[in-house]
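User: Reviewer 2 asked us to show a designed sequence for the structure in our supplementary figure. I'm pasting the structure tokens here. Could you produce the per-position amino acids so we can include them in the response letter?
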């Protein structure tokens, strides 16, 4: 947290309760939070007749910390029997994340991908990382995790639309790590590997997905994932066929060269060529095509 560029620490809040109050108001930026709600959240059954006065005292301390000398017109206002932080005077990463994701949903794919990447980078650190033992913080983290997962999936889908399969895989892997039971994330991961020409990785991802779904949900992956699985199996089979063709071409050329180098062996080399169904031109084309694709992949 910064005030006019000056960092503020937890100590500047003069205790954990004022810090918690400020965090709750930030989570509800722009929306009034009643005194009774704050008291119920932070004191619960421990509230007493003097708790309202204690809360008001904490609010005064927060105002001194975040808006010194401007207690009336600063970002923290009194409203409807509670308190509200003015979003026009507060720059909050959490709100910025939501704004970027919302803009991405209305933008063209290339612009959307830039906005989503910025949003996900902005939200990389855990929300309320120092507040680990409170239900209200857990609830806020759960909401943010769901929104971040949706943004990761959207980023993967957008990368796929832009023909960026490696980026699609990167975001899909993060989405799967965020929620291993999200079938949409697994589908993006498997199809991302498929489009990247990595059938072995795609088949491995599908196997992991099937194991997790069977163990935790008692069901198999859906039709979209099963279709991607079949395509990967065909892709790998085709890759194996190609390798066989390359090996046959190498053997053929080796036999031909050996036959040209030996007087009597020449006829034998020619008979091997006839048996294989290859010609010098076809063998050369197979090897040239294979080497060209290998060079691109490297």
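Assistant: Here is a per-position design you can include in the supplement:
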């Amino acid at each position: 947290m910064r005030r006019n560029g000056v960092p503020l620490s937890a100590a500047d809040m003069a205790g954990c309760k004022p810090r918690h109050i400020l965090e709750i108001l930030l989570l509800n930026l722009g929306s009034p939070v009643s005194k009774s709600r704050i008291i119920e959240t932070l004191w619960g059954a421990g509230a007493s007749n003097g708790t309202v006065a204690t809360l008001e005292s904490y609010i005064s301390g927060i105002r001194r910390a975040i808006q010194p000398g401007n207690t009336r017109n600063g970002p923290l206002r009194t409203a409807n029997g509670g308190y509200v932080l003015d979003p026009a005077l507060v720059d909050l990463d959490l709100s910025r994340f939501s704004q970027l994701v919302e803009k991405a949903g209305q933008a063209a794919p290339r612009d959307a991908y830039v906005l989503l990447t910025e949003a996900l980078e902005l939200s990389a650190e855990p929300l309320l990382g120092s507040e680990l033992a409170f239900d209200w913080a857990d609830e806020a983290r759960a909401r943010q995790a769901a929104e971040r997962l949706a943004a990761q999936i959207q980023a993967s889908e957008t990368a796929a639309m832009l023909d960026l399969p490696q980026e699609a895989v990167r975001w899909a892997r993060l989405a799967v790590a965020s929620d291993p039971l999200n079938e949409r994330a697994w589908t993006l991961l498997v199809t991302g590997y498929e489009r990247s020409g990595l059938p072995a990785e795609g088949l491995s991802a599908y196997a992991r997905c099937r194991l997790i779904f069977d163990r935790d949900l008692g069901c198999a992956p859906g039709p979209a994932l099963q279709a991607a699985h079949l395509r990967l199996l065909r892709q790998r089979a085709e890759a194996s066929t190609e390798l066989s063709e390359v090996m046959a071409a190498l053997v053929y050329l080796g036999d031909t060269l050996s036959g040209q180098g030996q007087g009597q062996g020449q006829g034998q080399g020619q008979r091997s060529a006839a048996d294989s169904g290859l010609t010098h031109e076809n063998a050369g084309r197979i090897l040239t095509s294979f080497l060209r694709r290998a060079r691109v992949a490297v």
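For the response letter, you might also mention the following. The longest strand covers residues 76-79. Confidence is low (pLDDT under 50) at residues 263-274.
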